[in-house]
Amino acid sequence: MIASDRAATVGGIVFLLFLLLASAGGSLAADKVTAPRLDPRISIHERVVDEKTCASCHGDQAAAFAKSHHAKAMALADDSTVRGDFNNSRFEHDGIVTTFSRREERFFVKTEGPDGKEGEFEVKYTFAYEPLQQYLADIGGGRLQALDIAWDTARRQWFWLGNDAPAKPGSTYHWTGSFYRWNRTCIDCHSTDPQANFQPTANEYKSTYVATSIGCQSCHGPGAEHVAWAQSSDASSADKPDLGLPKADASICFACHARRTKLLSGYDAGKPFLDYFSPALLRQDLYFSDGQILDEVFEYGSFQQSKMARAGVTCMDCHRPHDAGLKAEGNALCTQCHAETKPERFVKQDPSGLFDAPVHTHHPVGSAGAQCANCHMPERIYMKVDPRRDHSFIIPRPDLSTTFGTPNACTTCHAGKDNVWAAENMDKWYGTEWRQRPTITHAFAGAANGDRTAVEALRKLVKDQEQAGIVRGSAIARMSRIGGVDTTADIRAASTDGDPLVRLGAAEAASSLPPEHRLEAIGDLLSDDTRAVRVAAVTALGSTPADLFGNQRGSFEKAVEDLRAYVDTNADVAETQSNYGVFLFGQQRIPEAEAAFQRAISLDPALEGSRVNLAEFYRAIGRNDKSEQTYAEAISISPERADLRYGHGLSLVREKALTDAIAELEEAVRLDAGNSRYQTTLAVALDSVGRTEDALNRLDRWAATGDAAIIGLALQYSFKLQRLPEALQFAERMAQLRPQDQQILDLLRQLRQAVNQK
Fold first, then answer.
1. Sequence-distant (≥ 6) Cβ neighbours of residue 591 within 8 angstroms
2. Which of 126, 228, 319, 461 is most buried by its number of CB atoms within 10 A?
């Protein structure tokens, strides 16, 4: 299953995407029964056993699991598993025609290939079960690609997963590109003990797994030792415990049900989640400012915010572990704990009360509005047909929706009503005290807008021990982006917190500090107990001069080993290799850095971010000619990217090709008309070639936005052209923006005198 998250930054930290749904399988009526085909990718790896071995002893569990979507996450494409219409059906979107057919019990798709020409590809596997099913096609080199046209199992029709204009053939987001590559993006969570086995030299895959779909050992870990114990004489002794399998807890669920970066292969039940994965914090592109799900983030980040998680509730309190169904239907699931009598398991928390009644719900018994989940776990649709429930268990706040644009369950259900109506009804039902409940919304919304006044609100969240670790860690990370060097002490304090998610936030926050302050803030995190924290810390400290580490040099070198293991684990991920190039450059390992950037480009030639990083690398080492050339190559791939045009323009300035530079800067301004940095740079370039009047005229138009940099430059050029009345107008605007600036006030007084004397 595919989730979209497009971003590429010049600075180096770019996006990583993880496709983590559990599903697959299905049925079409078959005319005849045939022997099941063997999957050529199945290989019994070290320490694991054939999945059928488990069922020989654990029949009841195996039977329950067989009914789950987990058991159908991936399957060989045959008459019993393919749910889509492959009977010469045709689907068209944006002028792209795709046909689905079958021949001799094999399935094929004919559509636009990586070269832009129509090609036919064999569908090897189904991917997911419902409410949609995708298909994996073989495009050679061991690559399996998830087709971006899926089958809607409820409506029984094909649909396109995209939203914007279709990606160009050969690009990252074309269905044949790296984003849709099963071996790179999907493999971890749809099979048992999957191993990508990327071959860097040949640039191909030899991927294998123990079972095509999710199986027992996906959750319980390698079974060879357990089977050996079960077959030994010790197994019959009542005094001997069950050996060879760790206890499966919620962390094994989070390995797939989280938006996370994979740090190391080999994660099994019982191992620390944060030693193998680095979860995404509450970024504004992933979550609404109140913490509700925005992009496809799965359950971990939401659930970690909840009071339930802090009280010790786990996935298996609500979900049956083998068939993955709910333990109870409707509100009975919630009243396991939220009943009139306090459950004994909760010592500090008290979830008791009368909730499953009209006195609380204010909706008729049995109605949609009386269902706990509909109010406290609202759904959001992903992949166009797949509703997912928010697991932060938020209380609806229609009052905040009006101000901050956050969703709420009231108006989501009552589509014809507005937030004011919803809030007034809640006032009638519960009084107005609900409006005063503490919330993270104001702090995170202010941070999203770059409001420096949000720093103090975020600081309070970081210090509030009642807040979830993921909230506090996210708060320190957000705080540093708008507070900069002033947050050094806050980051240092957060780096000593007992919660690893807060320390992770501190490590990420340090990247926003000037390099000379980073070691002071997070140096101790280089030897943190948690690998995710160590990797984030060493990444942030990559540009720190070696002679500053002192007695922490050894810790730095060990953390570099963790970073290198992460890079090797993601050897086929262009973004990881490009980011590693940034780290290597910070270490002044110039040849290795260049090789890492080039490796990233070879993995995904269409990914602009890698070329931007390489171009900026060449600029930094004084190779302006190579920088300009690399930007030009990036633009040939993505001509509509304003940041590429801007970077290319600057490289042309350095090459003293000012006419060409101005043309590129003009393109940047056209493509991103509200970017004041692009506008002021263009104005400076025009002035440098004697076109000061042209520059001033443009600045005059752009000054309407009230940007101080634009108005200040316009004021400067007005002086240069001796156009004092216009200078006076710009000075008056500056005085409005900075009423306490004495220099501006003095200049304004002088200009008024000069203009009045004429």
1. none
2. 126
Residues with Cβ within 8 Å of 308's Cβ and at least 6 positions away in sequence, in order, are 393
DSSP assignment, residue 258?
S
Residues 6+ apart with CB under 8 A from 430: none
Side chain identity at residue 225, one-letter code: E
Q: What is the DSSP letter of 118?
A: E
**Among candidate residues 4, 11, 157, the one with its CA nearest the CA of residue 90:** 157
Tokens of 613: 């990083």
Is this structure's pTM higher than 0.85? yes
Residue linked to tokens 């595919």:
2
pLDDT along the chain (758 residues), means of 10: 36 29 33 66 94 93 95 96 98 97 96 96 97 97 98 98 93 96 96 96 96 95 91 68 80 95 94 97 97 97 96 95 94 95 88 94 96 97 97 96 95 95 97 94 93 93 97 97 94 98 98 95 98 98 93 96 98 97 97 98 94 96 96 94 96 96 97 95 96 96 92 94 91 88 88 80
DSSP single-letter state for residue 91? E
CA atoms within 13 A on the CB side of 601: 19
Tell me the longest C-alpha to C-alpha distance in the chain: 109
Three-state SS letters, 607-653: CHHHHHHHHHHHHHCCCHHHHHHHHHHHHHHCCCCHHHHHHHHHHHH
Handedness of CA 256, 228, 195, 40 (dihedral sign): negative
